[in-house]
Amino acid sequence: MESKAESLSIIVPCYNEEENIQKFYETLINQNDDIKKLDYEIIFVDDGSKDSSILEVKKLQKIDSKVRLIKFSRNFGKESAMLAGLKASKKNLVTIMDCDLQDPPSLLFEMLKIYEENNGKIKMIIAKRKNRAGESKIRAYLSNLFYRLNNAISKVRLVSGVRDFRLMSREVVESIIQMNEYHRFSKAIFEFVGYEKRYLEYEYISRTQGVSKWSFMNLFSYGIEGIISFSTAPLKIITIIGFLIFLISSIYGFYIIISTLIFGNPVKGYPSTIVLISFFGGLQIIMLGIIGEYIARIYEQGKNRPHYFIEYED
Predict the structure, then answer these.
(1) How far is the C-alpha of 289 from the C-alpha of 227, rounded, in Å?
(2) How confident is the model over 213-236, as a mean pLDDT?
(3) Between 169 and which of 47, 123, 190, 194 could a Cys-Cys bridge form, CB atoms 3.0 to 4.6 Å apart?
(4) What percent of the chain has pLDDT over 70?
(5) Could you tell me the sign of the dihedral formed by the alpha carbons of 16, 93, 177, 311, in that order?
(6) Which is nearest to 156 in space by CA: 221, 228, 94, 80?
(7) Residue 208 pLDDT greater than 60, yes or no
(8) What is the average per-residue pLDDT within 192-220?
(9) C-beta separation of 196 from 232 below 8 A
(10) In the prediction, which pLDDT does 278 show?
(11) What is the mean pLDDT of residues 145-172?
(12) What is the pLDDT of residues 58-80, one digit of tens each?
């Protein structure tokens, strides 16, 4: 007997998406009549938008009672918006979608079909881009470099091209909610909780309206977040580098002593000394910065602040 996708929560994080909300809703609802057969809810999580995103959602609420709204008191970031949506979801299946239509609604119905065909045994069905078309060569290269670096130093392996867009069973959602760390990196959290999963590939779709909220620096910071959140390897690397420097310095020091006793000690090597001092000074600052990143996370986690504040919920 097949496991039916009887109810579905659709979580839609929004930040300044007034141009996309109506089109997203129309595309989602009109794409396939099957969604109307489901007990669905659409949860728009407004992440402190400065435009008219709230008004656009309220228009939808007037025509569809299944549309819900969570409004943050300010911008807390997409990670917090996704967490709020997961906690607010009530259905047995949950999906996270961007409303810029880069997450094609047609793919959602393929996910539901896979879930039903496998009798609910596949707990997570994940959208994965076939390639990085639409990105600059530099950005694509750096993205792939991040995944290779992360997989080299972390036990939580990430797949390049994977999106936040995925279909999850209720048990997966409950497991994700239990992970209450302050600094969240959902791509790794989704992998960390485990469960049987399948990747569903699709061609890149460009934005229909508006601009991406992810600048290069935002992506760089997000990458650093991911590496530090799920790996202590950088700290171990610092220890290894420190040991190697000590070993090389000891050997060199021993060489200087023997050389002085045998050949004397003429003053030489001033340029190389300056270079070495600058190199190791910079290396020490980098090491302290890495340690500082971990300490900062301990400090912020210890405060136990909420991930977000909800101004109101409809």
Answers:
(1) 14
(2) 61
(3) 123
(4) 72
(5) positive
(6) 228
(7) no
(8) 68
(9) no
(10) 64
(11) 78
(12) 888 888 888 899 999 888 888 88
Among 72, 74, 75, residue whose Cα is nearest residue 85: 72
Parallel, antiparallel, or unpaired: how do β-strands 310-313 and 67-72 relate? Answer: antiparallel
Mean per-residue pLDDT, 245-251: 71
Q: Is 86 helix (H, G, I), strand (E, B) or coil?
A: helix
pTM of the model: 0.69
Give the span between the Cα atoms of 38 and 7, in whole angstroms.
Answer: 6
55 C-beta neighbours (distance < 10 Å), count: 11
pLDDT at residue 2, as a whole number: 45
3-state secondary structure at position 143: helix
Question: Three-state DSSP class for 207?
Answer: coil
Stretch among 11-15, 42-46, 188-192, 301-305 having the lowest mean pLDDT: 301-305
Tell me if 205 sits within 8 A of 102, measured CB to CB: yes
- Beta strands (DSSP E) in the chain are 7-14, 39-46, 67-72, 93-96, 124-129, 162-169, 197-202, 310-313
Q: Which residues, at least 6 apart from 240, have a Cβ–Cβ distance to it below 8 Å?
A: none
Q: What is the three-class DSSP state of 2?
A: coil
Q: Scan for tokens 């967490």, then name that residue.
A: 83
Q: How far apart are CA 262 and CA 259, in angstroms?
A: 5
Residues recorded for the chain: 314
**CA–CA separation, 95 vs 116, rounded Å?**
15
Rounded CA Rg of the chain: 25
Strand partners for 143 = none
Q: What is the DSSP letter of 185?
A: -
Classify 215 in phi/psi space as left (phi over 0), alpha (psi -120 to 50) or beta: beta
